[in-house]
Structure formats: structure tokens, C-alpha cells
Amino acid sequence: MSILGIPVTTLAGVPTTLGELLGGKAALVVNVASRCGLTPQYGGLVQLQGAYGERGFTVVGVPCNQFMGQEPGSAAEIQEFCSTTYGVDFPLLAKTDVNGADRHPLYLELVGDGGDIQWNFEKFLVNADGEVVARFAPKVQPDDPELVSALEKTL
């Protein structure tokens, strides 16, 4: 199965596929959490979305509660936090397991043979064809020159 054909559910509970969600755009898929020391990266992700959205790019946030319970809220609470605190306007998926026996098929494909997700805010750059072109560690900021360069080459 292509990564674009993988079924996902939006934070609002709407079933879709990654391909339908992206609509031919490149994406930065990020497992996110509201109560993490890295949570301020939401601001940088919103800036990336604003800077590159019209060029065929979107951020996709994937809430995950697997790292010290740092995303404990309901879908409504997550949406409220993201929109009011950071002005998040990019797609958010339903809370998802990114590691372990219940790892979502999206993360099975994103990770491939690359091992487990290290922590919240690990980032995967995916081109418009659904190919993973880069992986960035959680502490890599959204405005990191290496990430921005990879993104610009992908567009």
C-alpha cells in the first residue's frame, strides 16, 4: 500500500486517507503533544505552514500520548489548545500510537526500518508522491536551516 492510501482519521473523527488529506501536497508529518517541553514548536510549525502552504505544502500534526502521557486530552481539548494557544490551521489527526504493538500503519510506513519514534515532535518530510525524503529528530526546530532546505528542495 502506498503511504498516500493509508487510512487515517482526522481529529474531528472524519475517516480519510493520507492522500485525500494532502491533496497532492508535500507534508511534514509530526507527532505532537500539548504538554511537552517541545510544545512551543507548534509556533514554528504554524509559521512553516504560512510560509509554504501556497507552494504545495502542509504540516500534519499527529497527537500522541505515548511519551510520558504528554497528550492526555480529548480531541476537543487538543483542538481547543492548538487553535487558541498557537493558531494551528494545519490538519490534525486523531490521537495515534506511533510506537509499539498498536503502531498506526502510517507510522509503520514512515519509520520503515528506521526504528522507533524517539519522542514528541519527531518530523517526517514526505513529498507529493508520498515518499519519505527526510526524518528530523524531535529537537530539530521547524525553522532549522537543514529542515527548511530539505523542504524547499521537495517543493
UniProtKB/TrEMBL annotation:
<keyword id="KW-0575">Peroxidase</keyword>
<dbReference type="GO" id="GO:0004601">
    <property type="term" value="F:peroxidase activity"/>
</dbReference>
<keyword id="KW-0560">Oxidoreductase</keyword>
<dbReference type="Pfam" id="PF00255">
    <property type="entry name" value="GSHPx"/>
</dbReference>
<dbReference type="InterPro" id="IPR000889">
    <property type="entry name" value="Glutathione_peroxidase"/>
</dbReference>
<protein>
    <recommendedName>
        <fullName>Glutathione peroxidase</fullName>
    </recommendedName>
</protein>
<comment type="similarity">
    <text>Belongs to the glutathione peroxidase family.</text>
</comment>
<dbReference type="InterPro" id="IPR036249">
    <property type="entry name" value="Thioredoxin-like_sf"/>
</dbReference>
<feature type="active site">
    <location>
        <position position="36"/>
    </location>
</feature>
<dbReference type="GO" id="GO:0034599">
    <property type="term" value="P:cellular response to oxidative stress"/>
</dbReference>
